[in-house]
Design goal:
InterPro entries: TM_pro_TauE-like (IPR002781), TSUP/Inactive_protease-like (IPR051598). The protein is mainly alpha-helical and 274 residues long. The chain is 73% helix and 4% strand. Helix 1 runs antiparallel to helix 2, helix 3 packs antiparallel against helix 8 and helix 5 runs antiparallel to helix 10.
Length: 274
């Protein structure tokens, strides 16, 4: 039963993370904390092991989706490497901050983060892109399958600074970081949405390599659970990246918002009452 649950968590997290560009950690971490603290099914789960195990899974989620998106030529890997220059160091710093958090503090902070994530998902489609960097030094273009060409640009130092904050959140909470990076890429840098999601997953993959390495060094990865989660996450990421090329993800995003708010409120309550 435990293995079926872990496989299902991995599958769902991989599909959601790849489809929406979140990375899947917003599903894996709360699920591990719930089954590790509210049931007797998972042993040895605390904020550090939940985050470390989640980030290790993000390597495979990010790699699987990136390979799939590369096939559709939607990954802007040059921009992704610029973002990684910020998210990589940020994720290491976040991982070190995580080691000093107890369960109550982690639940409280992570609960607020999940609600903020839900709000961002709620308003991002209502906000209009703001072209702040029309004449930025770094410019890219993308032509979609319909022949429409998109041009976008950003100063590398600004992209790196935003990515550092995203990486910090990723290393601290075990999330992929796409919940913050994708809206920034779409609304500030004018990335086409599908390119933003694909490039975000590329950055998630690279950042997860670095941050999970830090958590492995700190002994925060539950290897047995990770090995069961990986096949589900890998398959889910492939499914999500395929659906991203075929479907509008609005319905799924609406469901995800509700789930994030409910889980966020529950974590805040647990953080307050202990």
């Amino acid at each position: 039963m435990v293995w079926i649950i872990l496989l299902s968590i991995g599958l769902f997290a991989g599909a959601i993370g790849s489809l929406v560009g979140l990375g899947g950690g917003v599903i894996v971490v709360p699920a591990l904390l719930y089954f590790g603290t509210s049931t007797s099914w998972l042993e040895g789960i605390n904020p550090q092991t939940a985050v470390g195990t989640s980030l290790f899974i993000m390597i495979f989620t990010g790699l699987s989706s990136t390979l799939a998106y590369l096939k559709y030529k939607r990954v802007d890997y040059k921009s992704g490497l610029i973002f990684f220059a910020g998210s990589g160091p940020g994720s290491i710093v976040g991982a070190w901050f995580n080691k000093d958090l107890n369960m109550e503090d982690f639940n409280l902070y992570f609960g607020f983060f999940m609600i903020v994530t839900a709000i961002i998902l709620m308003i991002r489609d209502k906000l209009k892109p703001v072209n702040l960097f029309r004449n930025a030094s770094y410019e890219r273009s993308f032509t979609d399958p319909n022949g429409e060409t998109f041009t976008y640009s950003f100063p590398p130092i600004v992209g790196t600074a935003i990515a550092f904050a995203v990486g910090f959140a990723s290393g601290l909470f075990g999330i992929g970081g796409g919940s913050l990076m994708v809206p920034a890429m779409i609304l500030i840098f004018l990335f086409p949405p599908h390119v933003a999601v694909a490039t975000s997953m590329f950055m998630v993959f690279l950042s997860a390599l670095v941050s999970s390495g830090t958590h492995i060094y700190l002994g925060n990865v539950k290897w047995l659970y990770a090995l069961v989660l990986i096949p589900g996450a890998w398959s889910g990421a492939r499914i999500g990246s395929f659906l991203n090329t075929k479907l509008e993800s609005k319905t799924l995003v609406n469901i995800l918002r509700i789930i994030l708010i409910i889980m966020g409120i529950r974590l805040i309550y647990q953080g307050i009452v202990g």
